[in-house]
Design brief:
Layout: H1 2-11, E1 19-20, E2 29-35, E3 49-54, E4 57-61, H2 67-77, E5 90-92, H3 98-101, H4 104-113, E6 120-124, H5 128-138, H6 140-149, E7 161-165, E8 169-174, E9 178-183, E10 193-199, E11 202-206, H7 214-220, E12 225-231, H8 233-236, H9 241-250, H10 254-264, E13 268-275, H11 281-289, E14 295-298
Parallel strand pairs: 1-8, 4-5, 5-6, 6-7, 11-12, 12-13, 13-14
Antiparallel strand pairs: 2-3, 3-4, 8-9, 9-10, 10-11
Helix pairs in contact: 1-5, 1-6, 7-10, 10-11
């Protein structure tokens, strides 16, 4: 019987309700940068990930390497209970590149070990369901021992993963936030998304990985915070032709971001997934500011806005 139950756990996901009730003060929203890095293994910058915090709830975007430990550090360092490991309940994946998903099994399993109350809800592009199912199958023996056959007698509900493959439009709503997905161009990827979070008249837009896109302009349209990926144009100009072809197709230069931000009119641009190419954060901020007169900040891990 236990093996049958484990098989069901590893292969079945159900559609989440359109609305959920989440308690907490909805008058204040914060953005916590959990990882501002890229596939480059920089010890100062974990893999891509951030959290929107509203009241007592956290809404994570992307799950790069180190996501759970960064969340735990932020919970302790900045007294954010919503980021305690057992409270990590929702994640929105922009696309399935490895640097954005290597932390997903950690997010699935570690909070379950640490007594998460209920399942993890995962929102992501087509292909997310197959990824989650395969990860659960990969950790089948671990789950079997922790829940059914070992001494831990873990809560099987905490190991449930509820997957929703998203399309453009509203993908999540509760008493705190409304989350809207929109398509962005990311090189060869068929499906890549950005997300907009609307909270009590405030708005936060997360670009995901993308080339320059009017979809960002439309989604922001005067938003409070635009969290956008970026690369140094000065450093890019020194790359070989092959590297330039790749990065100009998959990503957004600081100059392009400055032009985009002028049209999008965010109150603050936060730079993340920063490709320095040998330049400094200050130089990249200056490149953005050469085209955009508003506020710009280079994100660092664990910064809170």
């Amino acid at each position: 019987m236990r093996s049958i139950l484990l098989s069901l756990l590893a292969t079945i996901v159900v559609q989440r309700p359109a609305c959920a009730q989440v308690s907490g003060d909805t008058t204040r929203a914060r953005v916590v940068l959990l990882g501002t890095g890229t596939p480059i293994p920089d010890p100062e910058r974990s893999g891509p990930g951030l959290a929107v915090i509203v009241g007592g709830a956290s809404y994570i975007v992307d799950a790069g390497p180190g996501i759970v430990r960064r969340a735990t550090t932020a919970a302790r360092q900045d007294s954010i209970p919503a980021l305690r490991v057992a409270n990590l309940r929702r994640v929105f994946i922009t696309h399935l590149h490895s640097d954005h998903t290597l932390g997903l099994p950690d997010l699935m399993l570690t909070p379950a070990v640490m007594h998460r109350q209920g399942p993890l809800y995962v929102y992501g592009p087509p292909g997310t369901r197959a990824m989650v199912t395969n990860l659960l199958n990969a950790y089948r023996e671990d789950i079997d021992v922790r829940v059914y056959h070992g001494l831990e007698r873990g809560d099987s509900a905490a190991y449930r993963i509820v997957v929703n493959e998203v399309a453009p439009g509203v993908v999540y709503r509760d008493s705190n936030v409304t989350v809207t997905a929109f398509r962005v161009p990311h090189g060869s990827w068929k499906y890549a998304f950005g997300y907009r979070f609307d909270v009590n008249g405030r708005s936060i837009v997360v670009s995901g990985d993308t080339g320059p896109s009017e979809a960002i302009v439309d989604a922001c349209h005067g938003c409070d915070v635009l969290v956008h990926e970026v690369y140094s144009k000065k450093g890019f100009d020194r790359l070989p032709a092959e590297g330039q072809r790749y990065h100009s197709t998959f990503h957004t230069s600081a100059i392009e971001l400055g032009d985009l931000a002028t049209r999008a009119r965010p109150k603050l641009v936060l730079l993340t997934h920063i490709l320095f190419f040998g330049e400094s954060a200050e130089e990249i901020v200056a490149e953005v500011r050469s085209r955009f007169a508003g506020n710009v900040a280079a994100g660092v891990d664990l910064a809170v806005y």
